[in-house]
Amino acid sequence: MFTALLESLPFPPRVPFMGGPTPIQKSRLAWGDASLYWKRDDLTPYGLGGNKLRKLEFLMAEALSQKADLIITSGGPQSNHARLTAVVSTMMKLPSVIVIPGETPTEWGGNLLLDRLAGAEIIACGEEPLDQAVARIASEKKTQGYQPYTIPLGGSNALGSLGYFLAFFELLMQAEEQGWTPSTLVCSVGSAGTLAGLVAANALLPHPLRLVGVSVWQSANQLRPQVETLATASLKLLHAPCPLAPFEIVDQFVGPGYGLPTPASSKVLIECFRTDGILFDPVYTAKGVVAVKHLMQHESRKYPEAFVFWHTGGGPAIFDKHYYTELLRYT
User: Which segments within the chain are labelled E, that is strand?
Assistant: First the structure.
């Protein structure tokens, strides 16, 4: 059923970084009467894994089609997207530039170290807005003779979101083969592209799943139109416009702000590592898992359900001193 649907859609070219589906792991955690599964996109190939590889399949294919000889992107100092962009760029013999906010780092732990190992040029833009800094640097690189290709924050545009349109059906086919049916699918949300791809795919199901996005920095009111715009644009790229199914965004687990752990996220990170041997990150996924725990423990259900949390990766971030110092308080 799903195979025929996917074959009928005109997907743009992509570079096959993924190599195959990522595993699904059933959790041993007892957070209620529902089952819980982890979709392990932290185990994608290359650069210590992460969900952005799915987006980069489409984005890097477009860069190649435009004959780009330099890749430019942006993100926070512990950006998983920036890390994987640097890794696949160097694998493809393309130099890369990563634009980060604030001042030039004095410590190079976690993803920043991997960016350096991949050979990326890291440019700190101070107080200048990231999007303005990226546009300025791209213009400067053009004057130096480069043909740059700019990837947006998080790889989150309509083209990149197609990676998670495909991933949605990958999950459904895996669950079908294993003999169970997802009911609630949860993911952390930063730049909105991952959730948008899932929302776009969910729109094509006769009986859509419940989708819950867990914000890690913006309010739900800010995120919702971003997700809707990207999901609609992704469906348009596939010549499959249709109404979007309802989806939820929760924002009560952000805590003090982006990249700032909460006691709950630190504790659940350790709990999951000790119970399931699975490592979440303090910036994105641990906050998403706090939401999953809350939903499973506090919602009433008429019948047993199967929750899926999409583990989008990010483990290298805990090797940044700021994060591991905080985590050690709870061990």
Answer: 24-26, 35-40, 70-74, 96-100, 121-124, 148-150, 184-189, 210-215, 248-250, 306-311
